[in-house]
Design goal:
By secondary structure, the protein is α/β, with parallel strands linked by helices. The chain is about 35% helix and about 15% strand. The protein is built from 16 helices and eleven strands. α13 links the parallel β10 and β11.
Length: about 400
């Protein structure tokens, strides 16, 4: 018997406020957004039946904030940094959670612990923010995020308390921090990059809020796709293996990757670049197959003069190895290939040889009704986040995310 889907909206609208005050209990998604939510539940296969009661039978539905912000905008209840609660990142630049609203999030985690779901689906930026500390729904929708659950106390842990909660294992067992708990349910996480024995990672799929879809209907197919992925995860029909990506390789690891490709000449190789047009620079280049991938950085804001490589000689060798990789006979897979080809040729003098497949062209030919950006296409077919989110040195990329999310 499956646990209910845990659905999280943002805050009350006018109808939700009226109904909540009338009934004396929170009433999420009862207005126009609620009617569209019913459509999403039916279209994604999460809900079955004709009535609202039947469609929502397999769901627990709540909000990040059980209140109505001014003008229905969550940012209107947030504060500047000096008044924000410590340890919680900004929702948007200059917008932080006030301490007075922290009980709303603690209530949300209490509901999580009561329902104990297998899959969480969030609607809108602030819902995603409340459980992960992340926002930018435009670039994060459809990808699997995680909420941590302690294997010792069996509680969902607020993201801002995860680092301090690690001592729970030692305290509950009378042992040392990091000891494996004597708990039959305390098994290796089924999702995530690392085998962290302290926490299980419960999958969370973010998508657009129905209120946004009512104003921008073209994103409706994307939300249906996002929610369908949540259903497939609960049914066990989703790939559980994380992305095997090396985000900051050494020269030796790039050489090893070149040899791996030479021994697999028929393996399709994906190529993608990140650029900073303001500085006329390529900040990193990703190359990979379905088995493994590398992100080769050329800019790092955490190092002197933004240089990832320690010396000119090291950077030249990295580019030489990259040239050899791009010249291998493996079929190359790019998205919007003219952009990457022009930048690679103009900045580094690199050419890509071998058969070339452009997934933007393929997707536009097959799914004309859907958006065709790489983020949107990948959100339909993949479960792990974009490869650049694994890259620690991504200041320039984050600026692009903020601009796209406005």
């Amino acid at each position: 018997m499956h646990k209910p889907f845990f659905l999280v909206g943002e805050a009350w609208g006018e109808r939700e406020e009226e109904e909540s005050l009338k009934t004396g209990r929170p009433s999420p998604f009862v207005g126009p957004s609620g009617r569209l939510l019913d459509v999403l539940l039916r279209s994604s296969g999460i809900g079955v039946g004709e009535t609202r009661e039947d469609l929502r039978k397999s769901c627990f539905i709540t909000n990040a904030f059980n209140l109505r912000p001014n003008n229905n905008k969550v940012e209107n209840i947030l504060v500047e940094k000096k008044f924000g609660y410590p340890g919680i990142p900004a929702f948007k630049p200059g917008k932080y959670l006030p301490e007075a609203l922290l009980p709303e999030w603690l209530r949300l985690y209490s509901e999580l612990n009561s329902v104990n779901p297998e899959v969480i689906i969030t609607f809108g930026n602030s819902a995603l923010w409340s459980l992960t500390g992340q926002s930018a729904i435009r670039t994060r929708h459809g990808y699997t995020h995680f909420v941590k659950k302690c294997v010792s106390c069996e509680k969902f842990i607020p993201f801002w308390l995860v680092s301090t909660h690690a001592g729970c294992l030692a305290t509950s067992m009378g042992g040392k921090r990091g000891d494996e708990p004597n708990n039959p349910d305390a098994k290796r996480p089924v999702w995530g990059e690392k085998g962290d024995q302290k926490f299980r990672e419960i999958p969370l799929i973010p998508t657009y809020h129905p209120a946004f879809l009512l104003r921008t209907y073209k994103w409706l197919p994307s939300s249906i796709s996002d929610m369908t992925k949540g259903r497939k995860i609960r049914e066990g029909r989703a790939p559980l293996d994380p992305l095997r990506l090396n985000p900051e390789p050494t020269l030796a690891e790039i050489r090893e990757f070149r040899e791996y490709l030479r021994n697999s000449p028929k393996a399709p190789m994906a190529v993608d670049i990140e650029t900073s047009p303001e500085y006329r620079a390529i900040t990193c280049i990703g190359v990979g197959t379905s088995e493994k991938a590398l992100c080769i950085p050329f800019a790092d804001p955490n190092k002197p003069e933004y240089n990832y490589w320690g010396t000119v000689a090291e950077e030249v060798e990295a580019l030489t190895l990259l040239r050899e990789i791009l010249n291998l006979p493996n079929p190359k897979v790019l998205h919007n290939s003219p952009y990457d080809l022009i930048w690679l040729r103009a900045i580094f003098g690199l050419e890509i040889k071998g058969p070339l497949i452009d997934t933007m062209v393929a997707h536009a030919s097959t799914y004309q009704e859907l958006p065709h950006s790489l983020a949107d296409v990948a959100s339909v077919f993949l479960y792990f986040p974009p490869w650049k989110s694994f890259w620690k040195s991504r200041k320039l990329s984050e600026e692009g995310d903020k601009e796209e999310d406005k």
